[in-house]
């Protein structure tokens, strides 16, 4: 069974993005093995830290290397990719062999996709991911699901995906699976 690693772009416990990812996980049920990356301890990128790779970075790299595909669930911060997600991508896109900075990274040729949950800024962020993922040498599946946070979620903390969003997640899941076959 194919292994898909989910990267939830909000580190908040029970975040809307976490709930969004759980909807996508249902779309993959019985079709792929899903795991979630714990990247909460990845430090801010610095070349000073690269020579002795931090344990959290190595664990993230190992999880990425073991996966057949990576599915990101991204919030939008100020109409941009969240800095914490970009930081993780900076670490993961660095060459594994520091003596060859142009060599392969943990993300090299990995199949990737992204879903975006926000109340604005979807398109600028989608375009940023469309530019970034090929640049860092991933095989980007451009079947992006975007949606807004339902109004009631701000009161009760529960993200509710509409039938259209669930259908789009299913379509995205099928496209991702097709890309790794």
TrEMBL record:
<dbReference type="InterPro" id="IPR050712">
    <property type="entry name" value="NAD(P)H-dep_reductase"/>
</dbReference>
<dbReference type="InterPro" id="IPR029039">
    <property type="entry name" value="Flavoprotein-like_sf"/>
</dbReference>
<feature type="domain" description="NADPH-dependent FMN reductase-like">
    <location>
        <begin position="3"/>
        <end position="143"/>
    </location>
</feature>
<dbReference type="GO" id="GO:0016491">
    <property type="term" value="F:oxidoreductase activity"/>
</dbReference>
<dbReference type="Pfam" id="PF03358">
    <property type="entry name" value="FMN_red"/>
</dbReference>
<dbReference type="GO" id="GO:0005829">
    <property type="term" value="C:cytosol"/>
</dbReference>
<protein>
    <submittedName>
        <fullName>NAD(P)H-dependent oxidoreductase</fullName>
    </submittedName>
</protein>
<dbReference type="InterPro" id="IPR005025">
    <property type="entry name" value="FMN_Rdtase-like_dom"/>
</dbReference>
<dbReference type="GO" id="GO:0010181">
    <property type="term" value="F:FMN binding"/>
</dbReference>
